[in-house]
Design goal:
Strand order of the largest sheet: 1-3-4-10-11-12-13-17-18-23-24-25-26-27
CATH class: Mainly Beta
Distance between the termini: 62 Å
Oligomer: single chain
CATH architecture: Beta Barrel
Radius of gyration: 25 Å
Number of strands: 27
CATH topology: Porin
Strand content: over 45%
Shape: elongated
Number of domains: 1
CATH superfamily: Outer membrane protein transport protein (OMPP1/FadL/TodX)
Helix content: under 10%
Number of helices: 4
């Protein structure tokens, strides 16, 4: 493997951190709360409490089993501003052509077509009322998100060729996708088996907590600069990196409270701590035919000072990436409509939420810091001349920034109960809005940082012992365009003003010395579609 392969490896491990985040959380957890556009922090009272407000389980009686699925499809296109550069060392028919439209067309391995089911399974119990006021829950849930990408196309036609677990270069001169420095393909999962306890402190006050211990899996493939200074973005100087990484111990927690004011008003609040991930794994790089360092072959060997894991080889380096899901907070107020007997006829709820995507890390002072937007990567690799393996240098730790900021959101939702003989039909719906996580100029294809509006609705059929749920939602993000078009082609050129957007990462130089070459300027169009299904029983 030449030096360029090691560069690709380090950058690939860095960028792969986005796979676990994959975009902002969508409102809700399970079929019912998602059908209310997430407006449930005060009203939740069953297994969905695990992911929303653990104090809600104190409202249940007996044993309650909840199964829910939110099937999510993310539709996104990106067209980069500008045209393909003229190549100094080659001539291609696409030079000077407008960058083509790239479409997100992932098909998750456990999905149905483009839809990825996000599960919720929980059991809630009052322990037979043996300890008055004490309730417990156990279950499995995952954040409502879509961490899958496949952007291996230009104008709908595939470009890179699948080979084994990764991709290799094509044998034709078609224009490469302009999004390749963000992602070609990625898959990810964060699964959090959880337990929760809630206690009725006062007749109108419940408190609760959840603790989760799970795992994270990441697989990511992307194209990178195969040698420093590939400002003309010649595909022959790119490398393709495929990474598989795993964190077997991912922990999370949340605290919640619920308070009732008379028969009509309920208040709810929850706080969720960050989920830190340190994934370790193997990576394999494939070099373009013109990747070298001034014509000198350089090999990558495992570093003698292994910081992540020992046992790397020239074909599969060891590396680790630090990333995080953010801490969040929600507050909400619910008004219940009740009949003369005190039975709920319907409700309306208004919630507000905050997500701390903007946390920053000073990795020079704290190498173990985790940030949702800044991913730190260490590659246990050493670059040496081909004929002098005892010389050379270790690849430096790399950090890729996504330019994120905290987000704020509002959710408004409710339900109405319709008698159906001895049974009941419940209709529900909601709307939500979240501010953008990506700062101006920092939106990119591998992380959904757009502002969004969600519209959702659903219904349930409830008998004395079982409830069936169904719903549908759409998350609208519209079209976002940047007029900026900075595309340097020589090392002496840059962009006017301060950096506004992500540049390729190079582990051979310090970040403040990296050549500026933003690759995300252009037009994004995106939306989500959601299908919710669920069932509950109690005894």
């Amino acid at each position: 493997m030449k030096l360029s392969g090691g560069i690709a490896l380090a950058i690939g491990l860095t960028a792969s951190g986005t796979a676990v985040a994959g975009g902002l959380f969508l409102p809700g957890s399970g079929a019912v709360s998602t059908s209310r556009a997430g407006a449930s922090v005060a009203s939740v009272d069953d297994g969905e409490s695990i992911g929303i407000n653990p104090a809600g389980i104190a409202k249940s009686t007996g044993t309650h089993i909840t199964l829910g699925i939110s099937a999510i499809n993310y539709d996104m296109t990106f067209q980069r501003n500008g045209t393909y550069d003229d190549l100094v060392d080659d001539s291609q028919t696409y030079e000077g052509m407008r960058y083509g439209v790239v479409t997100q067309d992932a098909e998750p391995p456990l999905g149905i077509g483009h839809y990825q089911p996000v599960p919720l399974l929980a059991i809630v119990t009052d322990f037979g009322a043996k300890v008055p006021g004490l309730h417990g829950a156990a279950g499995l849930y995952a954040p409502n998100a879509y961490p899958f990408r496949r952007m291996n196309n230009v104008d709908g036609k595939p470009y890179f060729i699948p080979e084994g677990d990764g991709y290799t270069f094509p044998a034709f001169g078609a224009p490469p996708p302009a999004s390749r420095y963000d992602i070609i393909e990625q898959e990810a999962a964060v699964i959090l088996p959880s337990v929760a306890l809630a206690y009725r402190v006062l007749p109108d006050l419940d408190i609760g907590g959840r603790f989760s211990v799970g795992f994270a899996d990441v697989k990511s493939t992307l194209a990178l600069w195969g040698k420093p200074g590939n400002l003309e973005e010649w595909i022959n100087k790119d490398s393709i990196l495929t990474l598989k990484a795993h964190d077997s111990l991912v922990m999370g927690w949340s605290l919640g409270a619920a308070y009732r004011i008379g028969p009509n008003i309920e208040l709810g609040a929850s706080f969720t701590g960050p989920v830190n991930v340190t994934a370790r794994g193997d990576a394999h790089a494939v070099n373009g035919p013109n990747t070298d360092l001034e014509g000198t072959p350089i090999v990558i060997i495992p570093s003698l000072d292994a910081k992540c894991a020992a046992g790397g080889t020239m074909d599969a380096q060891k590396g680790c990436v630090q990333l995080a899901l953010p801490m969040t907070a929600q507050i909400g107020a619910r008004y219940k409509f009740v009949d003369a007997n005190g039975n709920t006829k319907g409700d309306i709820e208004l919630d507000a939420n905050w997500e701390h995507w903007g946390k920053k890390c000073d990795f020079t002072a704290d190498r173990d810091c985790h940030s949702p937007g800044d991913y730190r990567v260490v590659v246990d690799a050493h670059a040496s001349p081909e004929n002098a393996l005892d010389q050379g240098f270790d690849l430096k730790p790399s950090v890729v920034a996504h330019g994120l900021r905290d987000t704020f959101g509002v959710r408004l939702g409710g339900s109405y109960n319709i008698p159906a003989g001895t049974n009941e039909v419940i209709v529900r719906g909601g709307v939500a809005y979240d501010t953008a996580a990506a700062k101006e100029g920092w939106e990119r294809a591998d992380f959904d940082g757009a502002a969004r509006t969600m519209v959702a609705g659903g219904a349930s059929f409830k008998t004395s012992r079982v409830r069936f749920d169904a719903g549908f939602g759409a998350v609208l993000e519209g079209t976002r365009s940047t007029s900026r078009n900075c595309n340097p082609t020589t090392p002496t050129e840059g962009c006017e003003g301060e950096r506004q957007g992500p540049d390729p990462v190079n582990p051979l130089v310090n970040p403040d010395q990296q050549l500026e070459s933003p690759v995300n300027q252009g037009t994004f169009k995106s939306h989500y579609l959601l299908i919710m299904l669920g069932a509950s029983t109690w005894f």
